[in-house]
Amino acid sequence: MSKFSPFDATLWYATAAPAPQTVPLAGRVQADVCIVGAGYTGLTTALELVRKGVNVVLLEAEQAGFGGSGRNAGHCTPTFTHFSLPELRKLLGEPWAERLIARQTQANARVSAMIERYQIQCEWQQNGYVQAAARPGAIDAIKRKVEEYNAVGARTRFVDKAEVEAITGSPRFHGGWFHSEAGHLNPLGYARGLARAVQQEGAILHTGSKVTNVTREGLRWVAHTADGSVVADKVIFTTGAYTVEGWPKLDQSFKIMRVFVAATQPLSEEERRSVLPENTTMHDGRGDIYVYKYNAEGRIVASMFPMGRRGRDLAYTHQVMSDRLKWLHPQIRREIRWEYFWFGELDMQARTIPRLYGLAPGIVALTGLSGRGVPTGSMLGGILSEWALDVPEQELSLKVEPLHKAPFYMSFGPQLTLRYYRARDWLKTRMDGAPLPPHA
């Protein structure tokens, strides 16, 4: 399989509202701020700035949402994944940790508000998220999550075995963490809606305009494309995992980790009454994750990480995904057809939270979202816009750091971690006397 799946092969490309009309950059234009990359982070940064009267030009090499913003699975859960909140506080220190925690845990309110304000057609459903306790021994950790997140203002609760089965339709779980503010959407539809909002507010968006380099011109910066240039006081790179050229060594600040997403045929009305009957987003609670939800057509959209044959052998991968889904939901008796299958790329770095790099006076880059796409990308626009508006660096929610190369171990560390999680889950599940899913 190719490194980059064809963008037009995704479910979202087939079902999203049309992209707004744009043209490539031609000639020399002026701006206060030039933003490079029209994913969620770049689009929301542009939106924040232009609403404050800043003259913004946004350049995108392909089309709005072409990268992770248009390829992800569409989950919108305002949480952190790898680290607990106490661990984040130790890692980042104060006041940085508390500021970032506040922004991330409130991110879905921002997403919902933008969708409502600009009437973005993106299948937005805010029916909650369940992270399951896949074995009895996982319940204590779930209850700690409830305490940690509720202490910072989130609305979450522990659900017991009976309630988690009522919410999800699966008899396989022993409890779960229910996050009522979470939602899901068509991610490309959301990106295109943000692009339309950016234009509506008065910013200029040029697609098909890859930035090849940025040079100094007096007190200003010039972002160069094949057929034009933008002269600006400040430049912000928000190209994430799809960074190609633009600034020396920026693409070395992270390592790529691949994820695949697949979508079934539409389930019947009868099946939908018993499989995810409340239209929630579902995480099966294993370290080697299986996350799934519906799209507007009633297709199950599920994601996993490649491992061994999984992700390389398409027929085998489809079988693994079907076996897991039917194990979780024995009421699905017919054959599952995975009618869409695609890959996305994650810009991973060791802390698994975004990194804000100062590249030169007046230029920053933000990479390393590490898979926390929709809510994280949406809230980062607030931080970057504050930087562009000259909020002192010590008052931002992310530290501005010098650019540095991702450590070598990130080339294999995430995959080793997944394999460790898989082995740990297998052992602990056996010790708990709970059943294991197929291919565990």
From TrEMBL:
Xref: SUPFAM superfamilies: FAD/NAD(P)-binding domain
Lineage of producing organism: Bacteria, Pseudomonadati, Pseudomonadota, Alphaproteobacteria, Hyphomicrobiales
Protein name according to UniProt: FAD-binding oxidoreductase
Keyword Oxidoreductase attached: yes
Molecular function terms, GO-annotated: oxidoreductase activity
Key words of the record: Oxidoreductase
PANTHER family attached to this UniProt entry: FAD DEPENDENT OXIDOREDUCTASE DOMAIN-CONTAINING PROTEIN, SARCOSINE DEHYDROGENASE-RELATED
EC identifiers of the protein: 1.-.-.-
Pfam families: DAO (PF01266)
Domain FAD dependent oxidoreductase: 32-387
